[in-house]
Design brief:
It is found in: Cytoplasm. The chain is of the alpha/beta class and about 450 residues long. About 35% of the residues lie in helices and about 20% in strands. The protein folds into three domains: about 90 residues, NAD(P)-binding Rossmann-like Domain (Rossmann fold, 3-Layer(aba) Sandwich); about 210 residues, UDP-N-acetylmuramoyl-L-alanine:D-glutamate ligase; about 130 residues, Protein-Tyrosine Phosphatase, Chain A. The strands form three sheets. The chain has a nine-stranded mixed sheet. The N terminus is likely disordered.
């Protein structure tokens, strides 16, 4: 197949090969089957039973624990699951053969006319997506939440019952788009993350995030953090077509969202909304920004001000993000397993009010821990490493924290924290790393932490 042939997705008899049989892969398989594609699913690892059952029940051909090259290279189009890197041998082979490779987001967007809110960023995207979805749902819109969170976008599209989607989008998902364009795009912030997938070049990762706006028109909106230097630099060098709606804690804006007199103020075309910051359920400057972004979306989509206010007052936050688990002997245990990069942990440590025992570590993605040094010096009394290779953490903080322990299981880490903790301390799991060395994913890591705390 010529790599420039654009009709392959539209042609209903096309053969689609799906690499990876997780949430996005199986969701894509279901939608593709519904759209009369010849579907083949191939996973290099073992397929989870729940996904295998879906494939069997829907009579979709699949394989696991290896890729059959001959079957895969007969594809007209390939949907690559976001976790598979471009340097994987099968992906290289597909590129050599000029076979189109897209993401689930690209594929599914062809089959819906719904209004799409696409949310990306290094941190805060899950909270912003969850809060946006909550406000829109309470506001009476027919809306679903998907993408990098919750259900697969493709599976939701296959159900053909939603008029609006709120999608959390990772850089990996955006790497595989060609024509996907959300009506409203949000970029929460930028900080170095996943650099191992971007040749250790921050500019490659930034460019990947900005793909969220590349197909937008003057009818669309781009909501972004005007306090983020990297975002502002990129925008100054790369003009975009969409209408700009910034948010800021530092400056008053004529159009967008800003902080004034300890209130958030949203001003879009003389449609104003304001709310005292102390009344917002999720606290901290980063969460004020998340609330600003979500409220801007709700204002654009004409949700009633009273509904927005009630949603902001009642939103409990998301699991694994600064989630208070239990207080034992006056020690607060906090699950921030979703902090898979240094910037997320920066926010977490910054919010700590008491001397903190910090559980950190996992798969390092090219982390630079230097920005954490002042916070660690001020707030952290002991570090418990939780990873296969902790050398970088020990080297970074060994001179400023007296106690650094190495553990290789969550139960061991939590027990060590319990022994070190004194009255009015906090124990914070905020790994600043990916989880794949000891855990299935960050959710598994967070749940194991909560389970270990409850067993104390």
């Amino acid at each position: 197949m010529s790599p420039n042939r654009q009709s392959s997705i539209v042609n209903r008899k096309s053969r689609i090969v799906i690499l990876g049989a997780g949430e996005s892969g199986v969701g894509t398989a279901l939608l593709a089957k519904k759209k009369k594609f010849d579907v083949f699913v191939s996973d290099f690892g073992k397929i989870k039973d729940k996904y295998k059952q879906v494939l069997i029940n829907n009579e979709i051909e699949w394989e696991e624990e290896g890729h059959s090259e001959e079957k895969i290279l007969r594809a007209d189009v390939v949907m690559k699951s976001p976790g598979i890197p471009d340097k994987a041998p099968i992906v290289r082979k597909l590129k050599e053969n000029g076979i189109k490779i897209i993401s689930e987001i690209e594929f599914a967007s062809k089959y819906t006319k719904a209004t799409i809110v696409g949310i990306t960023g290094s941190n805060g995207k899950t909270t912003t997506a969850s809060l946006t979805f909550e406000i829109l749902k309470v506001g009476g819109l027919n809306v679903a939440l998907g993408g990098n969170i919750g259900e697969s976008f493709a599976e939701l599209v296959s159900e053909a019952k939603y008029e609006n989607f709120v999608l959390e989008l990772s850089s990996f998902q955006l790497d595989g788009i060609e024509s996907f364009s959300p009506h409203i795009a949000i970029l929460t912030n930028l900080s170095p993350d996943h650099l191992d997938r971007y040749d250790y070049k921050y500019e490659n990762y930034i460019a990947s995030k900005f793909r969220v706006v590349m197909n937008q028109t003057s009818e669309d909106y781009f909501i972004y953090d005007a306090d983020d230097e990297e975002i502002m630099k990129w925008l100054s060098e790369n003009p975009i077509k969409s209408q700009l709606l910034p948010f800021s804690l530092k400056q008053e804006l004529s159009r967008g969202a800003f902080k004034k007199n300890n209130e958030i103020v949203i001003n879009i075309d003389n449609n104003k909304f304001s709310m005292p910051i102390p009344e917002i359920a999720i606290q901290g400057d980063h969460n004020v920004k998340n609330a600003m972004a979500a409220t801007t979306v709700a204002t654009l989509l004409k949700i009633r001000k009273q509904t927005i206010r009630q949603s902001l007052e009642g939103f409990p936050g998301v699991e694994h993000r600064l989630e208070k688990v239990l207080k034992i002997n006056n020690v607060q245990y906090i699950n921030d397993s979703k902090a898979t990069n240094v910037n997320a942990t920066f926010y977490a440590l910054g919010s700590m009010q008491n001397p903190t025992i910090w559980i950190v570590g996992g798969v390092d993605k090219g982390n630079d821990y230097s920005e954490l040094l002042p916070l660690v010096n001020e707030k952290v009394k002991a570090i418990i490493c939780l990873g296969v290779d902790n050398q970088k953490i020990v080297e970074a903080f060994g001179n400023i924290v007296d106690t650094i322990l190495e553990t290789d299981s969550m139960a061991m880490a939590v027990k060590a924290a319990y022994k070190l903790a004194e009255k009015n301390n906090s124990v914070l799991l905020s790994p600043a790393c990916a989880s794949f060395d000891l855990f299935e994913n960050y959710e598994d890591r967070g749940r194991q932490f909560k389970e270990a705390v409850r067993k104390l």
